[in-house]
Amino acid sequence: MSFPKNFLWGGASAANQYEGGYNEGGKGLACADLISGGSHATSRKITAGIKEDLLYPSHEATDFYHHYKEDIALFAEAGFKAFRMSINWTRIFPNGNDQLPNEAGLQFYDNVFDECKKYGIEPIVTIAHFDVPAHLSEAFNGWASREVIDFYYHYAAVLFDRYQNKVKYWITFNEINTATLTIGNFLSLGLNVGESEFIHQPDHMQQRYQALHHQFVASAKVTALAHEKYPELQIGCMISYMPRYPYTCHPNDVLLAKQEENMHSKFCGDVQVTGKYPYYAKKYFADHGFDIVFAEDDQEILANGTVDYYTFSYYLTLCVSADDQVTKNGHSMIGGSGVNNPYLEQSEWNAMIDPVGLRIALNDIYDRYQLPLMIVENGIGVSEDVAADGKIHDAYRIDYLQKHIIEMDKAIEDGVDLIGYTIWSAVDIVSASTGEMKKRYGIIFVDKYDDGSGTLDRKKKDSFDWYQKVIENNGANLI
């Protein structure tokens, strides 16, 4: 195996899916706190304020807020070299635009980072992971307002100053390209969509892409700040990367696959790595009648705030067809042109399982940018329970991770500079897409269920012991 000696093996999480304590320690409401749970994605609601008759998964999640010492000790037992996590904006600035930070929130993350340091675990910290402050949504229409750029800049500046000696690796926005999808309106952009279904949100594409532009500018400004004041810090982007395959070798299928992959998987990375909008995005906006408003110095800001490394999530590949006679199943998130790939198995939630696709993605990304890469989310969601013997036998997860790690190794042999891998997820957490607990990703089981019940007790799965050995041998033994 060819993994470098300092490879950052670990696990990942997100505050709004894991942390809990939504009204403790001075924390304010985030948009995620207004998204209800449900038995499946389409039953979830976005509400104006907290409704007593609804369950909101983020409110307790799996309670890292009260279990962080126990969980980090388990990460250390597994051998983690890194823990990818996020800071909850409203734990630091309850309204998002407060002048002074909440000291109790800052101290909480001090405690978390100190606990990581005790075990030699490197934090990889996302500044904004689907948690726009609810006040900014209500008062400013979220990222549709340029004013939010300054609020975010102030927030990030406080984090850099406070944690400059505790956190080296930072990520500005989680899966920033989710803003290219309707689901990103409320989840990642904090646009005020009113009371609506989580999946079928009101959508104004011009406003959505303008809000995304504001995130680009914010990311570039804080990246430039770090480069100027804290040169030891490494600032990265994070993309939800979903390669598209043409359903056939017909040129129209090939063209559609390239167009969709460009606008979903490559566009945001191109802006954050190169500091400018790519030609194909400009054509896309022109074709759709969008006019992205640039302030006078925006282009200079983007050019001066390019990232140091590139991170991404990888779960699946998509297969697309331009032929109207081919039955579509909507797997493609942009054009609804997705079809089932006959060469791949599907997960319980209909995601195409494609380890080789990860090698393809790694080579494509590295060829495009020539920056160090991290895979900061990769895993499989499965319904699972404790077996009669008191254990969780998740051989399917071991198989999934094993096959993907093999392809990572091949990509490194290809010449890709891959520096880290944090599985999704370290611990069972609430699914961002469906709001379910039963869709379990972790190598650590948490006794928590969709109806909110459960003891929150932690239990190691079979995959925990397997991953421990993988890390111990630096990927040399995957059996």
TrEMBL record:
<protein>
    <submittedName>
        <fullName>6-phospho-beta-glucosidase</fullName>
    </submittedName>
</protein>
<comment type="similarity">
    <text>Belongs to the glycosyl hydrolase 1 family.</text>
</comment>
<dbReference type="InterPro" id="IPR017853">
    <property type="entry name" value="GH"/>
</dbReference>
<dbReference type="GO" id="GO:0016052">
    <property type="term" value="P:carbohydrate catabolic process"/>
</dbReference>
<keyword id="KW-0378">Hydrolase</keyword>
<dbReference type="GO" id="GO:0008422">
    <property type="term" value="F:beta-glucosidase activity"/>
</dbReference>
<dbReference type="InterPro" id="IPR033132">
    <property type="entry name" value="GH_1_N_CS"/>
</dbReference>
<keyword id="KW-0326">Glycosidase</keyword>
<dbReference type="InterPro" id="IPR001360">
    <property type="entry name" value="Glyco_hydro_1"/>
</dbReference>
<dbReference type="Pfam" id="PF00232">
    <property type="entry name" value="Glyco_hydro_1"/>
</dbReference>
<dbReference type="GO" id="GO:0005829">
    <property type="term" value="C:cytosol"/>
</dbReference>
